[in-house]
Amino acid sequence: MKPARLLPLALFAPLALASCSKDNDSSGASSKLEVRLMDAPGDFRNVVLDVRQIEVHLKEANDPDGWQLLPFQAQTINVLEYVNGKSALLVSTDFAPGDLKEIRLMLGPDSYVIGRDGQRYDLKTPSGQTSGVKLKLDKATLQERQTYQLLLDFDVAKSIVERGNWKPGNDKKERYLLKPVIRVVAQDVAGGLRGTVTPAAALPQVLAIRSSITVPDTFSTAADASGAFQFSGIPSGTYRVEFFPSTTAPTGQPAYRVVTRTGVTVTNNQVTELGATSLN
Predict the structure, then answer these.
(1) Cα(120)–Cα(178) distance, rounded to whole angstroms?
(2) 159 by DSSP, 3-state: which?
(3) Given this model, what pLDDT does residue 34 score?
(4) Which CATH number covers residue 251?
(5) Which of 158, 183, 208 is the last residue of a domain?
(6) Half-sphere exposure of 170 toward its Cβ, with a 13 Å CA cutoff?
(7) Is 70 exceeded by the pLDDT of residue 20?
(8) Of the ranges 2-16, 55-69, 224-238, which one carries the lowest mean pLDDT score?
(9) Which of 119, 198, 214, 253, by CA, is between 20 and 30 Å from 75?
C-alpha cells in the first residue's frame, strides 16, 4: 500500500485541538468536526503510519459505550510530508454539538520508516493495534454552527524508539518500536510563528522555546529548501528561537553558525512574523 498524499493545508489554528470558527450552516442543530494531522520532523526519510480507523469518546472515560466511529478511510500516511504549518485532513464531518473526551487512533501492522541509510524498518506498535492510541481532550466542546478542529501534532523524534539490544545485521523488522507521542493543546491556543533563514542551503532545525513559563515548552520544526519555516498552534508567550544548521557551507564561503533570537512574542489568534534570520 503506497503512502497517501493528502492535501496539505496551512494551519494557524491550535495545535491539537483547536480553533472554533463560524460556519455558514444555518441548520442550528449541528457542528462540523475536522481531524487533521501534522508532524514535528525526525531523522528519517519517511515515516509511514498505517491508520485504520479514528474514533472519539463522548462520555466519561470509564464508559465503554462512549466511543463513536468517525468517517475515515483507512490509509497509510507519510507524516513527514506535513511539517512547517502543513496538515493532512483526515476527517471532515457534520457532528452533534457537545463535549469530546478522547480521540483514539487504531493502527494497523503496516507502519514503517525509511532510515537515512535508505533501508525500510517496520514499526512494531503493541498498543496501537489492540487498544488503540488514546489522547485525552481538554475542554473540547463543539458549539452549534461552528467548525471545530482537532489537530494532532505527531512528534517523530519521541515516537520512534530504537530497541536497546538491536545491532546492525539483526532482523530489520525488530529495530524500532512505535510509541506515539502526540501533542494536544487547549482550545484557546491559536498562536503562530513564521520566518525565513539565509542562506537557505543551511537547512537548519528550528527550536521555539517558550521561556515565559517556569518549565519552558520546546517546539521544533525545520526550514524547507527555500529557507521558510513555520510553527502553528503554539501557546502565546515570549519565546527564544534557536537555529541549528544541518549542513556545512561550501568551501570558500562563510561558515554557517548557530543563531539565537530572544524576546519573540507570540499572541493567540495571530501569526508572528519573525522575518529573515542570517546564519552567516
Answers:
(1) 14
(2) helix
(3) 84
(4) 2.60.40.1120
(5) 183
(6) 13
(7) no
(8) 2-16
(9) 119
Which tens digits make up the pLDDT trace of 60-97?
767 878 899 999 999 999 999 888 777 888 998 889 88
Same domain, 253 and 137: no
Give the Cα separation of 72 and 54 in Å (integer). 7
Residues 201, 73 share a domain: no
Query: Do 28 and 159 have their domain in common?
Result: yes
What pLDDT is attached to residue 17? Answer: 35
Give the domain-ending residue among 183, 210, 226: 183
Amino acid code (one letter) for 95: F
Model pLDDT, residue 38: 84
Question: Does 2 reside within a domain?
Answer: no
pLDDT bucket at 9, cuts 50 / 70 / 90: very low
Give the burial string for 146-161 (b: 16+ CB within 10 Å, else e): bbbbbbbbbbbeebbe
Q: Which of 1-5, 224-228, 238-242 bottoms out in mean pLDDT, i.e. has the lowest?
A: 1-5
Average pLDDT over residues 22-31: 49
Backbone φ and ψ of 60, nearest 5°: -65, 155
Same domain, 232 and 127: no
DSSP assignments along the chain, one per residue:
-PPB---B----S-SSS--EEE-----SS-EEEEEEEEEE--SSSEEEEEEEEEEEE-S-TT-GGGEEE-----EEEEGGGS-TT--EEEEEEEE-SEEEEEEEEEE-TT-EEE-TTS-EEEEE-TTTTTT-EEEEEEEEEEPTTEEEEEEEEEEHHHHEEE-TT--TTS-GGGSEEE---EE---TT--EEEEEEEESGGG--EEEEEE-SSSS-EEEEEE--TTSEEEEEEEPSEEEEEEEE-SS-PPTTSPPP--EEEEEEEE-TT-EEEEEEEE--
In this structure, are 179 and 196 located in the same domain? no
